[in-house]
Structure formats: structure tokens, C-alpha cells
From TrEMBL:
SUPFAM superfamilies: ARM repeat
Domain of life, source organism: Eukaryota
Any Pfam family matching the protein: UTP20
Organism of provenance: Rhodosorus marinus
InterPro entries, A to Z: ARM-type_fold, SSU_processome_comp_20, UTP20_dom
Protein name: U3 small nucleolar RNA-associated protein 20 domain-containing protein
A Gene Ontology term for the protein's cellular component: 90S preribosome
Biased composition (Basic and acidic residues): 325-334
Residue intervals of the U3 small nucleolar RNA-associated protein domain: 88-302
Start and end residues of each stretch annotated as Disordered: 314-334
Length: 561
């Protein structure tokens, strides 16, 4: 009676949806096994066991749902359709049907699930923004109402439907939108299975590197459809990494990026994949159900496979002393180099692994327990190979990682410290204080890594001889020269290094020159950070460093006057 009155139709629809959302009847009732002849206690125990409740029969309400109500409601999802395109979609009705389906057994729900998902996926083909938004929202709410295990089917149906033209932009936008809703609602657990990880990785790699990226670069359809105006790929990879089952999902994402890195022929593609892996690191570090043991094994495997591809001497074996080789090493060395040399851009994969272990430490995902430190030892021993490389970006990341590891109680610290100091000298000799972002980053990483070596290594029992042998006038001269630059980061790194030298009471003539420079900056620097750090360091110098009465008086008079 309300078919010709749109207002009445809308009111009845809203009333029906409200009733369905509040549906609270049981669709099934458990069937208990009849007690068999025998001991009463045995019958009682069996009746209380979980197995006696495995059989269910539909209630009259459940029978009506499957035979009448749900089929009739499914025909009401698409209200109007003209020329093969959806003009109006009853999204609230679709969500209400999904809530009803969630009450059915899987064996009865799965056969009729396509009749709900297919119309919603087809509605995403519409050229009307409102219809696409309603369909997307309905798909997200329906997937939440059902179960996470059906998400791969829903996304797969969308991928099949949205396979050409502007619809590929709609697909990437929608595949990001739906998991983002799941991520917000289920942030306390890993809900994404391997099928969803693989599908999402393929979709977003195509958005960033494939035909979808080419269409966006050409600005086709960018003014007509909002889905074509923005890229969601990087955000999506972070969501995938934070929501996936790490044991299987990490390998899927890593393998997909590795395959494209091996075939990359332009720096643009490499930079895109670097950003994908960086965002994946952020997501993995916040994955709520990631086990740290699994993460350590994954990181070590990546380093073991790809560090030899980045070394300046790929035939070098880790874990042996200098010049120590075996007959087997000599026989297999050439073969191993030939195999690993085939991996192009392997340094990007090693950077990914090192960034992941650093991010896990920053996030506090593992304590420095005896068990964790024992698992970190093999990773620590792979660091020299990451430092002895021609790739500046990898050297930077490896130095930052070494800086963190130096502060842990690891047996291999001394072995790695030798390489850290050698690499730092090589970096400074090559770049100096180059006025570029890369040069400054490398300089800071080198200086901070040396600071960690000097501050943390052999704190107990040793150390003046070791410090005097390793930290010499060259490094103090470099630290002093950094004050001629405008970079505050370089200056703070230099102050930290000079502080470690003063605290270790390393007696070198250059220390006094550095102390004079620090005192001057403590009074005259424009930056309040430099002034504060300079005052603190000057006080430490006056109180802790060996000074003659004449020199002590000179410094005190400087501050007084």
C-alpha cells in the first residue's frame, strides 16, 4: 500500500530495520543425547560433556529466517536499478540482513552469502558517489557482523567485480576502507588471515606501482571520482602489518616487496618500496599478537640471506676471526657470491630488518632478559656485514642499530665495536660535514655510534688504555669542527661525544680545546638546547676532569666575567 508513497516506504523500511537490528530470538536449540542404559554417574558425566551439545536443530524462528524472511529481504537491497546500474541502495537493510545471517550456522549461511555480497559489490560500480559510499559502508558493517574469516571472500568478490577503468581506483579505496574499520574495532588482536594479506598486498602494490599508479599519474578521472584523488597504499600496508598473523603475514609482505625490488630498474620504484617497508615496520612493531621469538627468527633469516649481498667482501664469513677460513669456505665461497649477487637492491631488505629490530626496541616489545639477549646475539654478529658496505643508507641504519645494541649486555659487543669505529672513520673521511641531509645523517650516526662505544663498552675494570687507543684527536677534531655548521643535530651529537670523552677522563690535548668551545657555546649559542647542554657539560668538565689549578681558575673566571 505504500509502494507509491516514497515517504511511507522510507518509514516502513526504517521501522523494519530497527526491528531486525533488535532481533533477539534463538535460531537453534541444542539437541541433548538421550541417556543410555548403564551407570547413572556415567550418564550424568556424558550429558554434561561438551560433545553432547554439538548437535543443534532449528527453532521455528530459525526455519522462518532461512525459508522466508532472509530471501524476501534480500530482494529489497537494491531498490531501483536503471540501465544496469544501481541508482539507490538500501544499505541499512543490507546491514540488518547481515546481523540475521550471523545467527545462522555456517552450513546454512554460506550458500546465501553471495546473494548479499554480490549486490553490494556491484553497487560499487555505480558512478554516483553516494551509492558507492553506502555500499562501502554496508560491506564493512556486514563483514563485521559476520566473521573475520569471511573478509577474504568479500574482498575477493570486490576484486572480481571492480576489474577495469575507474573501478580499479574504487577497489583500492574500498579495500583500504574496510580493513581500516576492522583495525579500529579489533585493534586488540590480529584478525587478518593470510588470504587477506596476500590480496591486500597485491591490490596496493598495483596501486603504487602498477596500472592504477599510471592512471593516477596521468590524472585520468581524478576530477570525477574521489577514489582516484588520493593514494591509500602506504596507510594500508601499515594497517596490514599491524593486523596480520605475523608468522605467515610478514613473509607474504616481505616476499611481495622482494620480488619487485629484484625487478626494479628505476630509483622511483625503489623509493616507493622503501616507504612500503618502512610503514610495514611501524605496523609490525604495533602488532598486538606478534611473538618476539618469531620476530627475532624472521629478522635473522632476512639478515642471513641478504647481508652477504651487500658486503664489499661478500665472501667474508661472520663469526670467524680475521683471516680464519676453512677448506669448505674456500670451495663454496665463489658459488655463494654468485648466488647472492643475483639479488638486486638487497640493501633495502637488510635496512628493513634492522629498522624492525630497532623499532621493536623503541616500542619496548622485548625486555633485555637472558633469553632475549641470547636470541639477539646472532643478529648482533650480522651487523659487521651491514656496516662494511658501499650503500650509505644501509650504513646509516646499521650505525643507528649498533648504537642501540652497544647499550645491551651482549657478548659480541667488542667484536662489533671494532667495525663500528672503522666504519665511522670511513664515513667521515668520505663525507666530512657535507651540507646535505644524507651527509649530516651519516655524520650524526657515526658520532653517536662512537659515543655509545666509548660510553658503554668495558665500563667495568678497564678502560683508559682502550679509550686512548680508539678515541683520538681525530675524532675530537671532527666533533669540534661540527660547531661551524648550522645543524643543531650535529652539534648535539658532538656534545654527546665530548661528554663521553670527559666522563671517561681521556687525557688528550684536544679535550681542553673542546671544553673551551663548549663553554663559549654555553654562553653565546642562540639555541636554548645547546646552551643548556653546554652548561651541564662545562660543569661536568670542571668537577670530573683532571685539571691543574691554573686551568681550573681560567675556566671559572670565564664564567664569572
Amino acid at each position: 500500500s505504500a509502494a507509491d508513497d516514497p515517504k511511507k516506504t522510507s518509514t516502513i523500511s526504517q521501522l523494519l530495520v530497527s526491528m531486525l537490528d533488535g532481533f533477539h530470538f534463538q535460531a537453534y536449540t541444542p539437541i541433548h543425547d538421550e541417556p543410555s542404559e548403564g551407570n547413572f554417574a556415567d550418564n550424568l558425566e556424558s550429558s554434561q560433556s561438551a560433545e553432547s551439545l554439538l548437535a543443534f536443530k532449528p527453532t521455528p524462528v530459525g526455519t522462518y529466517l532461512t525459508d522466508n524472511l532472509i530471501p524476501s529481504l534480500l530482494s529489497e537491497i537494491v531498490v531501483e536499478e536503471r540501465g544496469g546500474g544501481v541508482e539507490f541502495l538500501n544499505a541499512p537493510m543490507a546491514c540488518a540482513i547481515a546481523h540475521l545471517m550471523a545467527k545462522l550456522k555456517a552450513s546454512e549461511m554460506e550458500p546465501i552469502l553471495p546473494t548479499l555480497i554480490s549486490p553490494l559489490s556491484s553497487a560499487l560500480r555505480s558512478r554516483l558517489n553516494d551509492v558507492r559510499d553506502s555500499a562501502r559502508n554496508a560491506l564493512a558493517k556486514s563483514a563485521l557482523a559476520l566473521d573475520t574469516r569471511y573478509l577474504s571472500y568479500i574482498l575477493g568478490e570486490m576484486k572480481t567485480t571492480l576489474d577495469e577503468g575507474f573501478r580499479r581506483h574504487v577497489l583500492t579505496y574500498s579495500v583500504h576502507y574496510i580493513p581500516s574499520i576492522f583495525h579500529r574495532e579489533l585493534s586488540n588482536r590480529s584478525w587478518m588471515d593470510s588470504d587477506v594479506v596476500k590480496l591486500a598486498s597485491d591490490v596496493f602494490l598495483d596501486e603504487l606501482l602498477g596500472q592504477v599508479a599510471e592512471q593516477r599519474d596521468a590524472k585520468t578521472s581524478s576530477t570525477a571520482f574521489k577514489e582516484a584523488k588520493t593514494s591509500k597504499g602506504y596507510d594500508a600496508f601499515e594497517i596490514v602489518a599491524a593486523s596480520m598473523d605475523f608468522d605467515v603475514g610478514a613473509l607474504i609482505v616481505f616476499t611481495a616487496c622482494k620480488y619487485r625490488l629484484e625487478k626494479a630498474t628505476s630509483s622511483r620504484v625503489v623509493h616507493i618500496l622503501e616507504e612500503i617497508l618502512r610503514r610495514s615496520v611501524v605496523g609490525m612493531a604495533s602488532n598486538p599478537e606478534m611473538k618476539i621469538n618469531s620476530a627475532f627468527r624472521f629478522i635473522y633469516k632476512v639478515l642471513e640471506d641478504f647481508v652477504p649481498c651487500c658486503e664489499t667482501d661478500p665472501g667474508k664469513k661472520h663469526g670467524k676471526g680475521k683471516g680464519q677460513t676453512t677448506d669448505h669456505d674456500e670451495e663454496t665461497r665463489g658459488e655463494k657470491v654468485e648466488a647472492t649477487a643475483m639479488v638486486r637492491n638487497a640493501h633495502v631488505l637488510v635496512e628493513f630488518a634492522l629498522k624492525l629490530i630497532s623499532q621493536l626496541h623503541v616500542k619496548g616489545r622485548f625486555a633485555e632478559s637472558e633469553e632475549n639477549l641470547s636470541m639477539l646475539e646472532p643478529i648482533m654478529k650480522m651487523l659487521p656485514g651491514s656496516l662494511e658496505t658501499k650503500y650509505d643508507s644501509l650504513t646509516h641504519v646499521a650505525l643507528r642499530t649498533a648504537q642501540r645494541f652497544m647499550r645491551m649486555d651482549l657478548d659480541s659487543r667488542e667484536e662489533v665495536a671494532e667495525t663500528v669505529l672503522t666504519t665511522a672513520v670511513r664515513v667521515v673521511a668520505r663525507h666530512g660535514l657535507r651540507h646535505s641531509k644524507e651527509g649530516e645523517d651519516l655524520y650524526q650516526s657515526s658520532l653517536r655510534a662512537c659515543t655509545a662505544v666509548l660510553s658503554e663498552l668495558k665500563k667495568e675494570g678497564e678502560s683508559r688504555d682502550y679509550a686512548e687507543r680508539k678515541i683520538n684527536a681525530f675524532w675530537l677534531g671532527i666533533a669540534i669542527s661540527s660547531f661551524d655548521t648550522d645543524s643543531m643535530e650535529c652539534k648535539t651529537a658532538s656534545i654527546a661525544f665530548i661528554r663521553s670523552v670527559i666522563n671517561r677522563r681521556v687525557q688528550l690535548p684536544e679535550v681542553y680545546n673542546a671544553a673551551d668551545l663548549i663553554a663559549s657555546n654555553a654562553m653565546k649559542a642562540h639555541s636554548s638546547v645547546i646552551r643548556t647542554q653546554g652548561i651541564a657539560l662545562s660543569m661536568a668538565f670542571l668537577l670530573n676532569y683532571p685539571l691543574s689549578n691554573r686551568r681550573l681558575k681560567q675556566h671559572v673566571n670565564f664564567f664569572i666575567t
